[in-house]
Each structure stands twice: as structure tokens, then as C-alpha cells.
Amino acid sequence: GFEAPADDLEAAIAAAWEAHLGLRPIGRHEGFLALGGHSLLALGVAARLEATLGRPVPLAPLLAGQTVADLARSLRGEAPATGTDPLLVPLRVGGDRPPLILIHAVGGTAGPFLPLAAGLAPGRPVWGLQAPALAGEPMPPDLAGLADRYARAIGSLALDGDYVLGGWSLGGVLAFETARRLPHPPCRVIMLDAALPAQAPTDEATLRALFAFDLQAAFGAAAPTDVEPLYAVFAALVAAANGYHATPADLDLVSIGALEGLLAGDPAGPWLGLVPPGRLYAAALPGDHHGLLRSPDLARLVEGFLPPG
Hints:
The protein is of the alpha/beta class. It has helices at 8-21, 39-53, 60-63, 68-75, 114-119, 143-155, 170-179, 204-219, 228-241, 296-303; strands spanning 88-92, 100-103, 126-129, 164-168, 188-192, 253-258, 280-285.
């Protein structure tokens, strides 16, 4: 049930969330992502709290889906209530079905996976992985370094049964690379509208234009003025993808593409030859790159590739 903020710090956090999320009242055990928060709203919340508290407020706890009480503990410098790796974002907790773990796209955040997580079968735990910079860590310079870091994060869950690893866009490529590094690998890897990276522009003006386009497509609104923390993550991930060359892996792959948009085409195409024959399944759904994650059809399709229990 509802539990009101326990002290002045929790009350200030709840007030900032209420102002930016348009919801009230917000209790101390409600999570930012679960209430509809995302990276742009997190920037506004952090700025409001910094003005109220007179101290820096990091984005990482908000984008990790922390509750009001969790964020208050974080701001006091106390240990989080859960001992999980800081890159892991609990998108749906509880249940005894084999879990699904999803890796971020070029934006670096796990929040876009919430509609997919909500549409899966009851009792299916779902974890997201966010970029290291959002948890206050340095960004590895390439996809291999990122995959190494994500393998450590997944290893911290100490999974001893079946699980599935997936990713959206660049996250699909990262899932492919991470899976081959895991001593206890996933039973399959699900790529969501994921293509092998092409050499991306490196000049500042073009990168900022691509970043603005990505924000517009994701949120349907112009970006606020202070997006530097998000742009830094975007630019670092674009740079990490440059120079990547995929090599074959002994994995079962599922490639689900969008029928519209920049990446429309044969979803199997990029991955043919990278896994053994007969171990690649491809499908496509209506919608574009960003709309795919919000499609109820996607959750039903993905659920069909997950172990039942």
C-alpha cells in the first residue's frame, strides 16, 4: 500500500517527481521508471533537486529505477537496499520463470524496455543493463570492453538455470558479444531491430544532429537545453561501435526487425554466417525502430522464445 515519505529528504524527492511526472501523491516505495520516468524527465528532476538541496544529484539512481526511499539512501551515501551490480536495472521483479536480461541501445538507458517487460508472461523477471557512465563509471573505449563489463554484471546475478539475453539496436550487438563471454551462457540471444554497426561520423556537429534525431524519435518532443550528460553517453557509445567487426559465435540467435524505418529489411541478413546453420530465427513486426518496443505484438513474440519455466 501507499507509504508517505518518511522525512524531509524523501518529501523533497517525492515533490520533484510529482512536479515532473504529473502524478500525486507519490509514496516512498514507488520507482521512478515504473511511474513513467525516462532520461529526459530525469534531467529535470535532478536539476530541481539540485536547486532544492544545494548539492549535485546524479542521474544514475533515477535511471536505475530507484524508489524515493532508495534515492534518499543514495544521496545520504548509504548502501543501496539491494546488493546488485550498479549497471543492473530491475525492470520487473519476482517470479520463478527463467529471466530475461536486456541491454540498452545507443541512448544508454534501460527505461525503453519497460513496455516489453510489462507485456511478458506473469512471473517473468526482467533486468535491464545501463551504460557504465550512467552509474558513474568510466566508459570502455570499444564494444569488447563494454561486453566484458556486462558479462561481469550478469555474472553477479549468479544464475544457475536457463535465461535469455537480448538487446535493442546497438544493444543487440552488445548482447551477441556479451553472450560469448559468459561462462554460463544464455539459452538464446534475442536481437531487437539490431544491425551490425557501420562506421559512424565522428565530427561534433553530425553527432549532435544524430543525437537530437534519436531524442525526437524516442520522446516525440524537442530536447531540453541541458542534455550534456545524455549526449556524452551517446557519443561514447557511437565511438565504441566504430571499428567493430563481428566474428562467428556458437549461439542461438533470434532477430526481430521493424518493417518500417531506417533499419527495415531482412532481419536475418546481418547475422547470416555468424551462428551455426539452423540456429538463427528471424521475424519482423509492423512499426518503426522506436515503436517496436511499445508494440504488444513484440511482447507476445518474445515470450514465445523464452523458456516457460
